[in-house]
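Final report, results section. Input specification for complex C-07:
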Amino acid sequence: MANNIAIKGLAAALKGGHVICSVVDYPDLLTNAAYLEKQGFELTYLSADSEARIDLAELKAAIRPDTVLFMTTIVNHVVGTIQPIREIYEILSGVDHKIYFHADAGQAYGKMPLSMKDLGIDTMSISAHKIHGPQGIGALYVRKGTKLGQVIHGVKRVDNLQTGGLSIALIAGFAKAVELTFGDFDKNLAQLRELSDYLYARLKEKISDIELNGAPGMGRAPHNVNISIDYIEGEAITMMLDMHGITVATGSACASQGLKANYVLMAIGKNHVQSHGSMKFTLSRYTTKEDLDFTVDTLAKITEELRSRSPLYNALKNQEK
Amino acid sequence: MQYSQKVLDHFMHPHNVGKMENPDATATEGSPSCGDQVTVFLKVNEESKVIEDISFLSYGCASNIATASIITDLAKGKSLEEAKAITWRDAMDALDGLPPVKVHCSVLAADTLQTAISNYEIAHGLKEVPNFSKETIIEELKKIIYPKVGEDIVSLKMVKYVGFSDGEVLIDLNMLSFDSWRDNVAEEIHEHLEKYPEVKKIQINFP
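Structure output:
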């Protein structure tokens, strides 16, 4: 909702022009971009490198005299790569006309420091349930002086951006989640980073033929580990993990309603097999080392079992003989 | 994905899984790039022509593994003639149904079994290598499932015209431009027909 209010609101105020986003953005941004195109805006979709990072030179080259809006997903929702927000802002602010900057912070808020003063973002969306708040509520940051056209009509609430009764229970829940997230922020971040590094190291140690998707090290958000496991398929893996009480996400076409491989993985140069065997682990401040050990041990057994059933793995073993 | 208990049972504990040493016939269908591949191994009694042993390997999702498992159950102990009558519908029924987007898995499993049987018959001089014709194309189209409803595109009367001359296949499909499954069905058609060396070019027309 916050993305919709911001993007459609900016579009309504701007009335037309050129908009830039990227092929690896969150679906909210991409579907809104498609909507803007229908409304007469011109769109440029930047490509992403093999780690899902946009290219700053490509951004510079894409800016036109009529560019009015740039949108990005701060932390990629699939592979966890952090976009160079500060550098993007420097480029946008160096242009001789105003380019609005909208950011989706669904995966970034509470997972990295976000100084609104330094980052120069005009509008930013936040989701409560990503920080253990209730589902069904989010927040929209709007920089002072940013004009958003009205996109939802009805009884005016919250600066004309919302209508209908506000849910006090959801707001209270969200507020508590924010309080808890930032109560021990630095310590939580350090712990998340340590745990995700530990998870990836243990995965590498226990399972052969896996690879990291997205940026390594500090280039990725501390709560996201996305890997591809060769020779087996993601839906089968996630279902078996689920039987053991472990929930992960996969980019496999077989697990999607549209039978399509994950668009982010395909856009960063992964092939169908790598996308089929991909899985995303999401950690939180409640994740423990024991949880991760259990996850890795279970996944190692599942991988062994599914590989024993896989003609691709059997063919490989035959070659080795 | 909403699977029946039978699908889950066969996925978690598949029957007849594993590579067979010295099989009498094998077949592999599907491709890793399409996300699923099944190999079937057969051991056939030369006298009685009964499938005495059968096993499979599967690279694919839960329903891919479950449908391959059930197809081996259905074929084991049957004569080749009996096994030739096993269809993807039998596999799906035996699993208490599949979600519409997963019906194509049962087609792949049944298809691989039929190809293995055919390979056995050709190798043992029981039949000739069939000639490629328009009928071959139509038989292949009957194996392509419209994922929205889980029925094949021929039964659904989505195939309006099939032509074949000089290696060129021409297919008119009744799928509207806003149908989100158009690319998926077209990809499946290519996958099914490109394995025939007789097919040099495939042209699919939509309204």
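The longest helix of chain A spans residues 185-206. The radius of gyration of chain A is 21 Å. This concludes the modelling results for the funded period.
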